C-alpha cells in the first residue's frame, strides 16, 4: 500500500496592514524513512505563514487508521528526547480516541 500524504496547514493568518507585503523566504526540509518495512519521503515546505507537507510512505498496513506525529526538531540523540515535543501549532488532540494527546 502506498500512502500519499498531502496536507496544507495554515499556521497563522497574515492580516493586511495596508502596507506592501514583504517578500517571504521559502524554507524546505525533508524526512526520509529507511527502516524496513517502511520507506518513503515526506517534504515540508514553508513559504510565508503557510506550511505544506507532502510525500509518500510505503510498507504501512492496508486498511488501517494510522496516526502521524511530527517532532519539532530533527535531532535523534538522547534516546530521541532531543527531537523535542510534538509539532502541534493548533494545540489539538489526536482524532483517534484510543491515543493520548499527540
TrEMBL record:
<dbReference type="InterPro" id="IPR024134">
    <property type="entry name" value="SOD_Cu/Zn_/chaperone"/>
</dbReference>
<keyword id="KW-0732">Signal</keyword>
<dbReference type="InterPro" id="IPR036423">
    <property type="entry name" value="SOD-like_Cu/Zn_dom_sf"/>
</dbReference>
<dbReference type="Pfam" id="PF00080">
    <property type="entry name" value="Sod_Cu"/>
</dbReference>
<dbReference type="GO" id="GO:0005507">
    <property type="term" value="F:copper ion binding"/>
</dbReference>
<dbReference type="InterPro" id="IPR001424">
    <property type="entry name" value="SOD_Cu_Zn_dom"/>
</dbReference>
<feature type="signal peptide">
    <location>
        <begin position="1"/>
        <end position="16"/>
    </location>
</feature>
<dbReference type="GO" id="GO:0006801">
    <property type="term" value="P:superoxide metabolic process"/>
</dbReference>
<protein>
    <submittedName>
        <fullName>Cu/zn superoxide dismutase,putative</fullName>
    </submittedName>
</protein>
<feature type="domain" description="Superoxide dismutase copper/zinc binding">
    <location>
        <begin position="39"/>
        <end position="92"/>
    </location>
</feature>
Amino acid at each position: 500500500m502506498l500512502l500519499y500524504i498531502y496536507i496544507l496547514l495554515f499556521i497563522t493568518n497574515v492580516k493586511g496592514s495596508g502596507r506592501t507585503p514583504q517578500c517571504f523566504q521559502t524554507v524546505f526540509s525533508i524526512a526520509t524513512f529507511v527502516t524496513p518495512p517502511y520507506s518513503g519521503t515526506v517534504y515540508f515546505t514553508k513559504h510565508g505563514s503557510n506550511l505544506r507537507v507532502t510525500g509518500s510512505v510505503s510498507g504501512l498496513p492496508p486498511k488501517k487508521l494510522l496516526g502521524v506525529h511530527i517532532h519539532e526538531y530533527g535531532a535523534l540523540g538522547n534516546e530521541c528526547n532531543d527531537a523535542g515535543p510534538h509539532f502541534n501549532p493548533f494545540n489539538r488532540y489526536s482524532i483517534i480516541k484510543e491515543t493520548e494527546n499527540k
